[in-house]
Write a structure and sequence with these properties.
- There is one protein chain.
- This protein has 330 residues and is α/β, with parallel strands linked by helices.
- The protein has eight helices and 16 strands.
- The longest helix is centred in the middle third of the chain and has 19 residues.
- The two termini are 35 Å apart.
Length: 330
């Protein structure tokens, strides 16, 4: 955080670390306020940083230090009538999302851009929601040769019921409109000699139109109907509601125009993952998109890389968008 704050100060930003630990830099003056919020944390995994065939290789190059660096570069030259706040948010890659949740308690800006890879000539306008739960099964210990299902087998049977219920809800849908249910982790066969346990970590990706509360209620109903000897406990680990923003806002139109000026044709994307948009869109209610250079297929992979030419183009696009924020008519 201190490193990023220092670099922003060198570029003329009024920069500091806020109460959540985010690196925050403000530049420019005027009635229009634009927040460019990217996240500074990355998933684990060391990837040797290098430039190779016109690409920057390294963990976080795409998700999402590339977009965050583009934000800082684009905002360095102030635009008339526009105050820009760049936020390097903490904990986006964890269920807490502490950085975005803190910023959500502050006043809403006029526009907000979330730093996530969309490609230099595209913007993201929707993300699925997410629900993660731990499902624990426990029962009295028994001899391994005793008849009937093991506690782990009971857990697998319950998982099959949960997945079937999720599939029924959006059976005719596909892609972004589909409710996804995945077994993200499992442990079983543990016993202290008195109680046997098994645990499932179940993750849902939830399309707009369905709430996390609905899915959790359905999960609990399926668990209540579970036939077996084990007692079932459910703990919510994390949740974000689905987010969708209009393609017709002044901000979205500004990106369409800016991308056209840079020689591209804008496309709009929807994504099955989540981002800080899931937190900030309902809290702020302002025009919002996610944007940044990079191919999201490289997210969280051992070959994460960012095209430097696309990075340069994204800065050009962002500068044009910020300039349009200061104009009364887009």
């Amino acid at each position: 955080m201190d490193w990023l704050v220092a670099r922003m100060r060198e570029r003329g930003f009024r920069a500091s670390v806020d109460d959540a630990g985010n690196a925050v830099g403000e530049i420019g003056e005027g009635p229009a306020h634009v927040v460019l919020l990217g996240h500074i944390d990355t998933v684990p995994g060391e990837i040797g940083v290098r430039v190779e065939d016109g690409e920057l290789v390294g963990r976080g190059a795409v998700d999402a230090k590339g977009p965050l660096a583009a934000f800082v570069a684009a905002a360095t030259t102030p635009c008339a009538g526009v105050r820009v706040t760049v936020v390097g948010a903490v904990e986006e890659e964890s269920p807490t999302s502490a950085g975005a949740r803190y910023r959500a308690t502050l006043a809403a800006p006029d526009w907000c851009v979330i730093g996530e890879p969309s490609g230099w000539d595209a913007v993201t306008v929707a993300y699925k929601g997410r629900l993660a739960v731990n499902v624990t099964l426990s029962r009295s210990a028994r001899h391994g040769a005793a008849p009937g299902m093991t506690c782990s087998e009971e857990a697998l049977a319950l998982w099959s019921s949960l997945r079937a219920a999720a599939e029924r809800r959006t059976r005719e849908a596909d892609g972004f409109a589909r409710l996804d249910c995945r077994l993200e982790g499992m442990s079983g066969g543990t016993s202290d000699g008195l109680v046997e346990r098994a645990e499932l970590r179940v993750g849902y990706r939830i399309p707009p139109g369905i709430t996390t509360a609905e899915i959790e209620a359905e999960l609990r109903a399926v668990a209540a109907d579970h036939v077996g000897e084990a007692q079932v406990g459910i703990e919510r680990i994390g949740a974000e509601e689905p987010a969708r923003t209009p393609r017709s806002t002044p901000l979205a139109r500004a990106f369409v125009g800016a991308i056209a000026e840079a020689g591209g044709r804008a496309t709009f994307k929807v994504k099955s993952g989540t981002s800080d948009m899931n937190i900030l869109a309902p809290a702020w209610g302002c025009p919002m998109v996610a944007y940044g250079p990079g191919d999201s297929r490289y997210d969280h992979t051992p070959i994460e890389r960012l095209s430097l030419s696309d990075y340069a183009r994204s800065i050009e696009v962002l500068r044009s968008v910020l300039a349009r924020a200061g104009k009364p008519i887009i």
